[in-house]
Amino acid sequence: MGNFSHLTHTHYNTYPGEFMAVHHKSTKASHRVGFTYLSQEDLLDAGCFDLRMAIEVAEKAMLAYEDHRIMYPEKIVQIFDQVSQDRINCLPATLLDEKICGAKWVSVFPRNPKRFDVQNLSAIFLLSEIEKGFPIAVMEGTLASNMRVAAIGAIAAKHLARKDSQSIGFIGAGEQAKMHLLGMKVVRPSLKECRISAKTAIEEEQFIDELSPLLPDLNFIRANTVARDAMVGADILVTATSAQAPLLKAEWMKPGAFYSHIGGWEDEYAVAKQCDKIVCDDWDTVTHRTQTLSRMYKEGLLSHNDIHADLHELVSRHKPGRTTEEERIYFNAVGLAYVDVALATAMFKRAESSHIGLKLDLQESMVFEHHNIISKIRL
Predict the structure, then answer these.
(1) Fold of the CATH domain 5-143+338-375
(2) Beta strand segments in 228-352, E
(3) pTM score, whole prediction
(4) What proportions of the chain, in percent to the nearest 5, are helix, strand and coil?
(5) Domain boundaries in the chain?
(6) pLDDT tens-digit profile of 178-195?
(7) What are the tens digits of pLDDT across the range 14-67?
(8) Which of 186, 225, 293, 317 has its CA 20 to 30 A from that of 355?
(9) Do 155 and 260 contact (CB within 8 A), yes or no?
(10) Distance between CA atoms of 309 and 276, rounded to whole angstroms?
(11) Quick one: fold of 160-337?
């Protein structure tokens, strides 16, 4: 990545995002600007893979949002293939209390695993402080993105799943499914059984191989690619796929079950129609997307009045969560960028406190202050 040995001669001041170099030959003010670079491995080493932290950060962020302490503009979406939904999005948000503005640059290419045998999602964060406007961090963002999905699903389960839930079923066995299981186990430690259905038996085996050492008290069952076997009778149902098809059937969802819908169109309309409560992370955002509920809304099969609450209203206790043991409850999350930025900020702070990360220069001085600028200009 280049030679950064000169950084050992730089002293850092206490202002985020700005390096103050001590020049022994000059008293001229420094215009050095720098930031911290954090790889996924850096974040793991700093102990940032922490689902409890992610849940707490997400809850705090939702309360701040409700209190108008979050700036949350529209995201920028660039879709390159309408069929596959290959896309790159830019999602900004500002945390006014933390005085941090951030953005997530995230790519979602659903065909990647099949076409190239690589992950379908990758992300990077840019964080800036808003006192001077300087960047403070550039970070790997896939870990935070997947943790945010799990945290939001876990918070929903905390309010909407039965407290005595013992079984959870999955359609989909990718990274977000794995994260979801860890989050669900945090809020529902009563879970004893996990049934997993994927497109191939190999994916199911990999899911179990990776998760069973982390959750030794959980009994894992392969559904041998039969989605019904993973879902029927489960207290908590999760669909986490890149499919655009009604995979989950209404008859598989028993009374009292909680359904966490992660992807796009993964369930038949009858699933939502039979549920006693429908909750979204943000219903207004859902209406502009391509989820099952989005499709139903655009086809006139679902209205604003059919939505019980947005998730922040449950967190703040402005609306109730589960009120009976027999309710079927549907939860749909499309992603809240301000939660991503809040989580990235918390991860950055944890890494900083552990002195983990690479300090890099954005600039050593302003352009015309370079002593050899005449040799750099092309006129």
Answers:
(1) ornithine cyclodeaminase, domain 1 (3.30.1780)
(2) 236-239, 244-248, 258-261, 265-267, 277-280, 309-310, 329-332
(3) 0.90
(4) 35, 25, 40
(5) 5-143+338-375, 160-337
(6) 999 999 999 999 999 999
(7) 334 443 333 444 446 789 999 999 999 999 999 999 999 999 999 999 999 999
(8) 186
(9) no
(10) 12
(11) Rossmann fold (3.40.50)
